[in-house]
Amino acid sequence: MVDPMTTAVLLQIVFIPALTSLFLFLFRHALGKKAGWIATLSLIYTTLLLTLTGFRIYQGSHRIYEEYLLISPNITLGLMADGLSISVALISNILCLALSLFSIKYIDYRIGSIYQNVEAKREISYYSRFYYLFLYFPMGFMGVSFSTNLIGMYFFLEVLTITLFFLMAYFGYIERVKIAMMCLLWGIFSASFFLAGSLMVYSRVGSFEIARISTLAGDPLTFWIITVFLLGLFVKMAVFPFHVWMPWVHSTTPTCIAGLLAVYANIAVYIIVRVLILPLYDDFQIFGPMIMVMALITMIYGSLLTMAQTDIKRVAACSTISQIAYSMLGVGALTAVSLEGGMFFFLSHIMGKTVFFSTAGIVVYTTHIRDINSLGGLAAKMPITALLFISGAMMLSGFPPFSSFPAEWILFTGIFERGATDQLTLVVGLTGVMAILLTVGYTFMAVRKVFFGPLAADFDNEHIKDPPLSMSIPIIFLVVLSVAIGMYPKILMDLLQPVISGAIAF
Amino acid sequence: MDTLFAWLCLIFPLTGVLSTPFLARIGPALRDYGSVFFSFLTAASAGMLLPLLFTPEMLPLETSYIWLDTPIRVNFGVLIDPLSIVLANVVAVISFFIMVYCLGYMRGNPSILRFWMLMNGFIGSMLLLVLADNLLLIFVGWKLVGVCSYGLIGFYYRDEKKYWIGGPAPFKFDPPSACGLKALLVTGVGDMFMLAGILIMYYYSGTLDVMGLYRTAPEWVPQMAAAPGMMILVSVLLIAGPVGKSAQFPLIEWLPEAMAGPGPVSALIHAATMVKSGVFLVARLVPIFYYGYWVAGSPEAMHFFVIVAWIGAVTAFIAASKGLVALELKKILAYSTVSQIGYMMLAMGLSGFRQDLLVNGYTAGVFHLMSHAMFKACLFLCAGTVIHSAHSIYIHQMGALRHYLPFTWVFMTLAALSLMGVPPLPGFWSKDAVLLVCLESRHYMLFAVAVAAVICTSFYTVRLIGMVFYGRPSDHFRALEEKYKTLEEKRAHLGEGYLSQTFACAALTMGIVVFSIYGLRVEHMLHDLFADNLAHGLSLPTVGHTAAFPHLLVPVLSVVCVAAGAVPAFLFYFTGTWSVQAVFRRSNLLKLIHIFLWERWFIDRFYSWFIVGGIRRLSVFVARICEAFLDTVIHSKMPRVVTHGGKALLDSLHADARDLSNNIAYVLATAIFFIVGTVWWIR
What does the alpha-carbon distance between residue A63 and residue A145 come to, in Å, rounded to a whole number? Predict the structure, then answer.
């Protein structure tokens, strides 16, 4: 008998959201607002599959590989899960799941405020539209994580870009269509470089398989290939000066998917590690110092930019710029420890950002105000939200017991490992460590302005209260997950270590 | 088995944190007494470690479990050695009495659940810090302590005016939530540097275990010393952490504002425990740098001791001088805390100056830490009662309170005398030990600074007691007396606090009395313990100490200095023989000095202007100028150039921009030319 839990798991993980999306589309009127719950259920199923797969890999299977023939003779879809990709996929999928649940109420409110006075049928149509579009996010993330070839990866990256375009255009904030267009153009710009890089790889190797990229090592064109890839990915990661799209896009997206936007940007770090560093470790060395310096500039610039924001959504948006730079710093230091730390930081950051952003969303949902200076004293009326927001601030600033603490620790261990023998890295590392303080500054300043101080008279009514459980439970779950990983990071490091240290330890 | 109690020291407070919300559901009494009970269990567990001090040959004890093995190896474990036993007891026992005090002080507070959780969380984190067997775990405790103190300082997060500190008008006030943030950020500066220091050290040592670092010092310390400047860099980075947490110069400025929390919080965090963690960490690091200088022969390692000693001495003086003019009761005590920790740092720094000072310096530092924890906790708790009774945070709005607070008057006066260093109170013994080491080191500049701080300490302490308990009642207090007419009302509003408050203060005062009797004996015991631990256990080279100065020189000098500060203060504030106003009016120099000290040497102002203001200005510049420029260029100028430029190009080629189809061949030809050119060039 076929066991659905072990047969074609990766294919299921990638495409079940897409199938669910189709189902939601076809039966949108019959399903009504149950669409949200069905999407959530499908994500619970894929999360379960991912957890089981992760467990199998943790137990020693090391890698799971699936290949499907698309067009005879040799156009195939390859999916591969190892410790690195399963960690990225699992955490991203959990975030999708949490935000899917979070959106059930949130998107209802959002539709109510954008499309006022529409008839019920049309409202339902918007509601299900959100969910059948939303489900392409998990599909894209899973696809990028598991793809074994560059074209597959390119395809899934484009899926993400296009999904983001539609979601933003339909459900975003002011000027949403214009910003969605801007985001699409940046996405395509970035993806074009990725495609160009892929074609350059093909021209030398004769294959798009990531596993074959290592044969490029030492090739004179490798430098240019890496440059082209990096240019594209820098745009995606919002590295200074390619970051200009991020504050606009991040603050315009509906809050319920803003956490996923952080994944969308940050997953580029995974791509750099998977496509460039692991196969071409030696050729990549020359880029290390430049990446570190760019990361440092980005993290400080991003933090300063964040500090000047007064829009609560823009605070979270700008902070993404500086947070991604930490993972990038780890990538730039190019030691096994710093790479693992960088990946760990990436996963911690996306959890933290989702918590921070979604809680900001709860504040906007409850008060309908985005300007930090007009808020204040909300902790008295919304204690759970306040606690979650503080947790988000702590997760971003790397406080124990959250996972970002060991992540930061491991990341900087790797950086100083290189820094002990390299002056530039030492200076970058020291400045980077100090820049964390800016994060503490802007996150906790936001905490103070929004939640502490006297309660504004406008808020002293019964409408200002903690959100419904369907909004707070997913966020609480993420906080607990982050604490669990923070208390026992071994489980994640055991998954990452064989892939990263194993590949570059020769 | 023996480490069981150390584990319990961590488990009980954590259980306290987790169970309080459930206990609160059952009833308020269970919630309050339950929380205190957990801190009692913690104190009892810590107490069970004390017998180990009598069998030093069994120490150190260590139990650890692997927490992470890739990519760095970190254990989760406890280390029991003389230092951690002493510190754990100081923390746990004093915390327990403070918790008892809170039963009365916090009664009826609507947010008491949060308070109990944070307090137990704080105690647990602090014990994790002192009992941890490796630097990562110490750092975890370190950060958690910071987070809990952030929550406790900003406990009155609604920033009601009555909880503001600073002032009095027209001077600036600080709301509690801002004070919490300030503490978090300023200590954070030190934390981050320290993190860097630990990680660089890890690169060389390959271990984070405290005992492992000591044991493998012969392998890694010479390696680190071989890299020029590395020893100094690591010293500075590592010292920054303790400097931040213990509010030493230059990160001195957060502690006075940390007084925004409830009274017992000030006692717990800013007197007895958290601020001591810096001294503890320096004590943990002393053997490493001592080895570096005296065994591995790295001259750079001496910088560690020199920096620590000078920071300690300078801080002791700066803070004490600020205390001379301050008007807020708790702020004076805060300055005094900073100043006293300066003495501990000084002693720790001196321990590396000479081989015969290692044990003496180390002992003096830890001994002063113990005695200070006790009398300062007592002072702060009494201050809580005093402030409650006087309905004011300023000492000039008090006066003659001894009539209303007879018990507090006795307790506070005894503790204050100990702070001044009046024999035979514990403060005398411990300060004497520090001064002795300082003199023996023959660094007379350091000694002079330390002695000057003694004079200031005794002046501001007498001033404080005089203005609070003696003299005539202030106008403010007289108004209160008139407001509450009957004796019952007066007793309820102006009198002693709840029984639990008086009990806690009494217990600490008893501790001071007992410590006065056994002080010298305790000092000798500590000396033997540390001699055994450092010289034999860690095999650090030491030589026997021979006194170079007459035995009675330092005690006599110390008493003279105390008198030098106390007598004028007595004449000013007790008897009123000398008039403060008259002296002040006469001397312009005094006025200038007063402004300088009142403005806290302008350090805080400078930081606010340069660092806080600087970052703010920079962030506005980045957002308004840089980002706006980039955004305009990339999102509107460049597309416009492309559109307009493209049109201009086509125009100049005599092509029709409106109908590209006519000229498509032309455009294609150009594109092909470029592509072919590029491909040819790459090949």
Answer: 13
B627 touches A: beta carbon within 8 Å: yes
DSSP category for residue B54: G
User: What is the nearest CA distance from A3 to chain B, expressed in angstroms?
Assistant: 34
Distance CA B433, CA B430 (A): 5
Which amino acid makes up residue A346?
Answer: F
Flag if A490 and B69 touch (Cβ within 8 Å).
yes
Residues B398 and B294 sit within 8 Å (Cβ to Cβ): no
State the pairing for strand pair B165-166/B173-174.
Answer: antiparallel
**Whole-number Å distance between alpha carbons of A132 and B43:** 58
Q: What is the pLDDT along chain A (506 residues), one digit of tens a residue?
A: 567 777 788 999 999 999 999 999 998 888 888 889 999 999 999 999 999 999 988 887 778 888 887 776 667 888 999 889 999 999 999 999 999 999 998 888 888 888 888 888 888 888 888 999 999 999 999 999 999 989 899 999 999 999 999 999 988 887 888 889 888 989 988 999 999 999 999 988 888 888 889 898 888 889 999 999 999 999 999 998 888 888 888 888 888 888 898 899 999 999 999 999 999 888 999 999 999 999 999 999 999 999 998 888 888 888 899 999 999 999 999 988 999 999 999 999 999 999 998 999 898 888 888 888 888 888 888 999 999 999 999 999 999 889 999 999 999 999 998 888 888 999 999 999 999 999 999 999 999 999 998 888 777 787 888 888 888 999 999 999 999 999 999 889 988 888 888 787 64
Are B418 and B426 contacting, i.e. CB atoms less than 8 angstroms apart?
Answer: yes
With CA atoms as reference, the chain A residue closest to B229 would be A420
What predicted TM-score, i.e. pTM, was given to this entire model?
Answer: 0.92
The span from the CA of A106 to the CA of A119, in Å, is 19
Closest among A327, A397, A94 to B188, alpha carbons compared: A397
Q: Judge contact between B320 and B350, C-beta under 8 A.
A: no
Q: What is the dihedral of CA A74, A80, A84, A89, to 10 degrees?
A: 110
Interatomic CA distance for residues B89 and B111, integer angstroms = 29
Confirm if B355 and B294 have CB atoms less than 8 A apart: yes
- Please name the residue ranges forming H helices in A135-175: 136-146, 150-171
Give the Å distances, CA to CA, from B453 to B438, B488, B554.
13, 43, 15
Q: Are A292 and A332 in contact (CB under 8 A)?
A: yes
Q: Which residues of A56-85 are buried (b: 16+ CB within 10 A; e: fewer)?
A: bbeeeeeebebeeeeeeeeeebbbbbbbbb
Give the distance from residue A219's alpha carbon to the nearest chain B alpha carbon, in angstroms: 13
Residue A43 C-alpha, separation from nearest chain B C-alpha, in angstroms:
31
Q: Are residues A334 and A284 in contact, defined by beta-carbon separation less than 8 angstroms?
A: yes
Q: Closest approach of chain A CAs to the CA of B619, in angstroms?
A: 4
**Cβ contacts of A377 on chain B, cutoff 8 Å:** 158
Nearest to B158 among A309, A377, A410 (CB): A377
Residue with tokens 């760019």: A294
Would you say B426 and B371 are in contact if contact means Cβ atoms under 8 Å apart? yes
Alpha carbon distance B40, B255 (integer Å): 27
Within 8 A of A419 by CB-CB distance, chain B residues are: 200, 203
Under a CB-based contact definition with an 8 Å cutoff, are residues A301 and A322 in contact? Answer: yes
8 Å CB contact between B428 and B558? yes
Separation between Cα atoms, residue B508 and residue B414, nearest integer Å: 10
Mutate to test the interface with A, among B69, B140, B160, B231 (most CBs of A within 10 A): B140
25-44 in chain A: CB under 8 A from chain B:
none
Token pair of A250 as six digits: 């991040």
CB B32 within 8 A of CB B103: yes
Report how far residue A329's alpha carbon sits from residue B336's, in angstroms, rounded to the nearest whole number.
43
Neighbours of A383 (CB within 10 A): 15
